[in-house]
Amino acid sequence: MEATALVLFALLVLAGQRACAASDAGGGGFRVEFIHRDSARSPFHDPALSPHDRLLAAARRSLRGEVLGRSVLAAAPAPAADSGVESKIISRSFEYLMAVNVGTPPTQMLAIADTGSDLVWVNCRNGSGAAAAAGGVFAPSRSSTYEVVSCRSDACQGLNQASCDSASNCQYQYGYGDGSRTVGVLSTETFTFVDGGARQVQVPHVDFGCSTYMAGTFRADGLVGLGAGAFSLVSQLGSATSFGRRFSYCLIPSSAGANSSSTLNFGSRAVVSEPGAAKTPLVPGEVDTYYTVALESVAVGGRAVASNESAIIVDSGTTLTFLDPALLQPLVAELGRRINLTRAQPPEQLLEVCYDVSGRAQEDWGIPDVTLRFGGGGDVTLRPENTFVMVQEGTLCLALVPVSEATPVSILGNIAQQNLHVGYDLDARTVTFAAADCTRSSSASSSS
């Protein structure tokens, strides 16, 4: 069922694109749809679920270790010939998807877009002609621009413990903390991105994994790593084009219309120029892939309540925000003093702080803004819709939770980032935040 939905989705998107001529890296950048997994534009959308059900499911994914965690790679069996290259990447789920066109002629793939990993890979046919997994499949033999990377190349040597197959091709093995992994051949190919549904931007010689074996659950045609490492799409665009190593997104709120989607921007389109933009430098983290910044203090309703500098990862693939208890506990206490609502029992005991808002208009909830102060003095204001979610009719819960054994790192999740234009610049080593109307921005970009 899911495989059929993926194929139909790809055909519909491809049919709606206007063909353009040759390669186009002009214009300084491009933007694509950033599709939430629960959006009506996603093949994983379940119409039987209410908006509250979807938010509750996303909270479950965050709290049950399916996000950035500390888990080590499990021993998932791989074909004996594929000793490969293993990269221990921390466990996570996925929340956003993007369409990529691979090869010449292009094959459209719907891939997970992941700010928490680096490798770009797609589902390929193996030597026997079988696909590594259900869904969209890229057939290298049908592309005139496909090339295999030698195991003696710099690209292959850039992966840990590079491995050669009998033909001296670069075998890779890329693992995730939940035991999932992809195994295949490191290759290069032309990737085509459709900007605004019309203009095509072609980028040749993108290093990617042509996956012929998968273990675990990958409910998409592949994965586009948007992390800070050398193999990510962001870094490769910086090397192959004039775009620079920068990207941004503007996440529409969960209350937006069913046919709306967020935008993912590259190059000059990724510049955050809205008034009041707050810029903070990237700081060294335990994993180079992640976008780590310093969170210095928090304020509620303009009143500072806690100062305790801690590293926090900015991540689109995590739903909730995880904070150091030294910051979260005084924040929750101050919210409790200011919010004049009756406490409610949290559904499934997932979120600890919930309120009963039955029969009350939203303007009567009395929820104050929360301000995060990052390193460099940048202040980011979180509105009530960034800090609270309606998990069932009449029950409003705080979407800020303490770090835990399952998720022992602080993470700024995607609910907190909704209606913010968030820009990542690896050349300048900064992350920039600005308040924005992301639904309006998405509508404007899709019509341009």
UniProtKB/TrEMBL annotation:
Keywords: Aspartyl protease, Glycoprotein, Hydrolase, Protease, Signal
CDD domains to which the protein is assigned, alphabetical: pepsin_A_like_plant
Superkingdom assignment: Eukaryota
UniProt name for this protein: Peptidase A1 domain-containing protein
Entry annotated with the keyword Protease: yes
Pfam families xrefs: TAXi_C (PF14541), TAXi_N (PF14543)
Signal peptide (UniProt feature, chain positions): 1-22
Claim: Glycoprotein is one of the keywords in the record: yes
Organism, scientific name: Setaria viridis
GO cellular component: extracellular region
InterPro entries registered for this protein in UniProt: Aspartic_peptidase_A1, Pepsin-like_plant, PEPTIDASE_A1, Peptidase_aspartic_dom_sf, Plant_Aspart_Prot_A1, TAXi_C, TAXi_N
Example GO molecular function: aspartic-type endopeptidase activity
GO biological process, one term: proteolysis
